[in-house]
């Protein structure tokens, strides 16, 4: 599992354990699984898609920001 967080300057938008997450970066969409290599990337406006442990697929729109990826954690710092 991945500890997935989406935060804005004002609040925590989402904090959940997920199986995988797909994020729109400036270089294209990336899908992150557990034990992914560490990276920091600039995000473009788009939709984050994540898979919950129960098997559902959820979507979250963002207007941009940054993502920090660690082997067991993904943090999105959203513009809004």
From TrEMBL:
One cellular component (GO) term of this entry: endomembrane system
Keywords: ATP synthesis, CF(1), Ion transport, Membrane, Transport
Domain ATP synthase F1 complex delta/epsilon subunit N-terminal: 3-80
A Pfam family that the UniProt record links to this protein: ATP-synt_DE_N
Membrane topology annotation: Peripheral membrane protein
Molecular function via GO: proton-transporting ATP synthase activity, rotational mechanism
CDD domains: F1-ATPase_delta
InterPro entries documented for this protein: ATP_synth_F1_dsu/esu (IPR001469), ATP_synth_F1_dsu/esu_N (IPR020546), ATPsynth_dsu/esu_N (IPR036771)
Compartments reported by the entry: Endomembrane system
Quaternary organization: F-type ATPases have 2 components, CF(1) - the catalytic core - and CF(0) - the membrane proton channel. CF(1) has five subunits: alpha(3), beta(3), gamma(1), delta(1), epsilon(1). CF(0) has three main subunits: a, b and c.
Record-linked PANTHER family: ATP SYNTHASE DELTA/EPSILON CHAIN, ATP SYNTHASE EPSILON CHAIN, CHLOROPLASTIC
Family from the record: Belongs to the ATPase epsilon chain family.
Protein name: ATP synthase F1 subunit epsilon
Organism this protein belongs to: Candidatus Liptonbacteria bacterium CG11_big_fil_rev_8_21_14_0_20_35_14
